[in-house]
């Protein structure tokens, strides 16, 4: 079977169920962004496999996240009549993320200020995942506004998943001995020189 079909050359693609939709349809934009997020999560998983001292259960968590993201993408790509046949995003999925977030933040110093998304490559890449996840959530909201049958669980899951990546970034930074870089808002040159 060839990887190319030529069926999308005119700007349309197939939904799960067989009907065609424009490639700029909000559902396509939403599941495409979830797909992009999955690629970033896969890279974070692979980075973590090379980093000495990281726990294997973190990589197992990321594999589970990848599985759930595939389900999110399938649900966003599905026609109304096929939704019930697909793996669903459940309240238990959201609660599992909440438990992981609580565990990741256990014992970390309380944040008293904003921090910059840097300090270690693992920390930075966790924030790449977080920000792409936020965009996937926004695209899902747009799709749900036009197509009310978009499962609510997908939006809730993505919302909580972005919190997970934030917590993961903090935990990785702490475990790897990275310094959290505090955001110090800079005044403009003109403001700095006033009164001199």
Descriptive overview:
The protein has about 200 residues and is mainly α. About 60% of the residues lie in helices and about 5% in strands. It has six helices and two strands. It has helices spanning about 25-50, 55-75, 90-105, 120-145, 150-175, 190-195; strands at about 10-15, 20. It has a two-stranded antiparallel sheet. The mean pLDDT is about 85.
Helices and strands in order, then pairings?
Elements: E1 12-14, E2 20-22, H1 26-50, H2 56-76, H3 91-105, H4 121-146, H5 152-175, H6 189-193
Antiparallel strand pairs: 1-2
Helix pairs in contact: 1-2, 1-4, 3-5, 4-5
Mean pLDDT across all amino acids? 84
In whole angstroms, the N-to-C terminal distance is 73 Å
The assigned structural class equals mainly alpha
Total beta-strand segments: 2
Largest sheet: 2 strands, antiparallel
The geometry reads as globular
Query: β content, as a range?
Result: under 5%
**Count of DSSP H/I helices:** 6
Helix content: 55-70%
**What are the low-pLDDT stretches, counting only 5+ consecutive residues below 50?**
none
Instruction: Return Rg in Å.
Output: 20 Å
Strand order of the largest sheet: 1-2
How would you spell out the order of helices and strands? Answer: EEHHHHHH
């Amino acid at each position: 079977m060839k990887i190319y079909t030529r069926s999308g050359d005119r700007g349309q693609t197939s939904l799960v169920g067989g009907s065609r939709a424009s490639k700029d349809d909000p559902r396509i934009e939403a599941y495409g962004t979830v797909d992009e997020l999955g690629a970033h999560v896969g890279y974070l998983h692979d980075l973590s496999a090379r980093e000495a001292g990281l726990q294997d259960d973190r990589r197992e968590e990321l594999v589970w996240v990848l599985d759930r993201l595939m389900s999110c993408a399938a649900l966003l790509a599905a026609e109304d009549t096929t939704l019930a046949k697909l793996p669903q995003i459940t309240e238990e999925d959201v609660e599992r993320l909440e438990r992981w977030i609580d565990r990741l933040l256990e014992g970390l110093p309380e944040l008293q200020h904003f921090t910059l998304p840097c300090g270690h490559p693992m920390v930075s890449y966790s924030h790449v995942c977080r920000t792409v996840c936020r965009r996937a959530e926004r695209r899902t909201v747009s799709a749900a506004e036009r197509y009310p049958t978009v499962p609510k669980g997908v939006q809730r899951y993505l919302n909580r998943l972005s919190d997970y990546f934030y917590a993961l970034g903090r935990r990785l930074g702490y475990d790897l001995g990275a310094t959290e870089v505090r955001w110090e808002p800079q005044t403009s040159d003109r403001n700095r020189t006033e009164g001199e």
